[in-house]
Automatic annotation (TrEMBL):
Compartments it resides in: Membrane
Main location: membrane
Species of the source: Qipengyuania citrea
Protein name: Sodium-dependent transporter
Pfam family membership, one: SNF
Membrane-spanning segments: 17-36, 48-73, 94-121, 160-181, 193-213, 240-261, 273-299, 319-345, 365-385, 413-430, 451-474
Key words of the record: Membrane, Transmembrane, Transmembrane helix, Transport
Topology term for the membrane: Multi-pass membrane protein
SUPFAM superfamilies in the record: SNF-like
Classification via InterPro entries: Na/ntran_symport (IPR000175), SNS_sf (IPR037272), YocR/YhdH-like (IPR047218)
Lineage of the organism: Bacteria, Pseudomonadati, Pseudomonadota, Alphaproteobacteria, Sphingomonadales
């Protein structure tokens, strides 16, 4: 028997605290790593422009929908959806998409911590290199002095081949995430966002300026913002659609959970817009940070997932101040990873508190510990269990290792399903008066939002889901 859902007494101290935490939830590896990777692979400008359109036509309506559910429900994702459904005289079964989101968040944080561990490892390498440069009296030398490009690239393979190293950095990162979540909303999550997000933006602007001065900012800007519409293929458009959802952390009930901690005020529209704008600006700035460096040293912008861990470390070696700015670059990514992992772990933790009546430390420990154990399986997929294919019977995942299988299943199936059900629920089932009074939108803005969420969002997300499950639709 499911425990009675209870409202949480926890809440944000201010609107700005919620915005910082929500932007921190959205800003993560999806902005700093995945967006530049996709932009590089997809030819730049056409992808970027279509992505921005997707954020505001699809992402923003879904952001507002998730925040609304949390604000109206005032408890965990499942309980909040159940309450909105009850007030809208809809079936309580709609709460299932809150459960899908909570499960997706749990699965994602398990492998997210592993990948963030890689960032932690590289931050340690670059930090050690900076210390050596300072001791040698040359703190503004290039990074990893004396190493060849092959040696720098080999570091990633060596890391993957070491289960102990991967386990160690995964343990440290997950431990930090669990500690912050266990401390609660005001003492843990809000305090972390209050310190980490200003630090993140200072580092980001500083690194963009560094790239503009030492790199080729003109070529990077032309690559990112000059569209070649011939490259806007169905595959590129689908990638942009998926990135808009992934980047804003939609479909994992994170913004529902964070929205439930809003105790006062009804101006959810401007707040949601600010979250979407800030997240998009971070993605664009990440491109303006990375691509000037890539172009300045003649490297391939379409290097793919190795861009951050192999291409850029070599680029920092050839640039003045590379030791310092290479270290700051990985610190920047690490900060973004922490703020996102906190929001991911908070979703199942809030479910344990609201649905099971567990204390916050107990719920955080259960789900954080479970995610840590699942992450061990993911990291072993790079070495000891390299031949394991968890969903090998499914052609879509026949050749993917453990981590990529969990990543692919959550990204291709669970996130689109969560976003699809959210859009249908808000667009067709939620009570109109409840929506109006809670969001505080003007009649015109409300009409536009309701149209987008009822018609455009379900169609677009259904396309993402269908093409993710059946790539042959796109000819791939």
């Amino acid at each position: 028997m499911v425990a009675t859902t209870t409202s949480t007494s926890e809440g944000w101290s201010s609107r700005s605290a919620f915005i910082l935490a929500a932007v921190g939830a959205a800003v993560g590896l999806g902005n700093i790593w995945r967006f530049p990777t996709l932009a590089g692979e997809s030819g730049g400008g056409a992808f970027v422009i279509f992505y921005i359109a997707c954020v505001f036509l699809l992402g923003l309506p879904l952001v507002l929908s998730e925040v609304f559910i949390g604000k109206a429900g005032q408890t965990d994702a499942v309980g909040s959806i159940r309450r909105v459904a009850a007030q809208s005289k809809a079936s309580p079964s709609w709460a299932i998409f809150g459960g899908v989101g909570a499960l997706a968040a749990f699965l994602i944080v398990s492998f997210y911590s592993v990948v963030a561990g890689w960032v932690l490892y590289y931050a340690g390498i670059m930090g050690g290199d900076l210390v050596q440069a300072i001791l040698a009296g040359d703190p503004f030398r290039g990074a990893l002095a004396g190493e060849s490009q092959d040696q720098i690239q080999q570091r990633l393979s060596d890391m993957f081949a070491s289960p102990g190293l991967l386990l160690g950095v995964h343990f440290v990162f997950m431990g930090l995430t669990l500690y912050i979540v266990a401390r609660g909303v005001s003492s843990g999550i809000e305090k972390a966002a209050t310190y980490l997000m200003p630090m993140f933006f200072v580092l980001l602007v500083g690194l963009v300026l560094y790239g503009a001065i030492e790199g080729d900012i003109g070529q990077a800007a032309a690559f990112l913002f000059t569209p070649d519409w011939s490259k806007l293929t169905p595959q590129v458009m689908n990638s942009a659609l998926g990135q808009a959802l992934f980047s804003l952390s939609l479909g994992v009930a994170g913004l529902i959970t964070y929205g439930s901690y809003i105790k006062e005020g009804s101006g959810l529209g401007p707040t949601s817009a600010l979250i979407a704008v800030a997240d998009t600006c971070v993605a664009l700035l990440a491109g303006l940070m990375i691509f000037p460096i890539v172009f300045a040293v003649g490297l391939d912008p379409a290097a793919g997932p190795t861009l951050v861990f192999q291409t850029l470390p070599f680029a920092f070696q050839t640039m003045p101040g590379g030791a310092l700015f290479g270290f700051l670059f990985f610190v920047l990514i690490l900060v973004a990873a922490v703020t996102s992992s906190i929001s991911l772990l908070e979703v199942p933790t809030a479910w344990g508190i609201g649905e099971r009546g567990w204390s916050r430390p107990k719920s955080a420990l259960i789900f954080g510990g479970g995610a840590f154990l699942m992450g061990i399986a993911c990291l072993l997929g790079y070495n000891v269990w390299a031949d394991v294919r968890p969903l090998g019977f499914w052609s879509l995942f026949a050749d993917t290792d453990i981590l990529d299988t969990v990543d692919g299943f959550t990204g291709k199936v669970m996130l689109p399903v969560g976003a699809l059900l959210t859009s249908i629920f808000i667009g067709w089932k939620a009570d109109k008066n409840l929506l109006l009074t809670t969001t505080g939108l003007s009649p015109l803005a409300f009409g536009i939002w309701r149209f987008l969420i009822a018609w455009l969002c379900p169609l677009a997300v259904a396309i993402i889901l269908a093409t993710g499950l059946f790539p042959s639709i796109l000819g791939t």
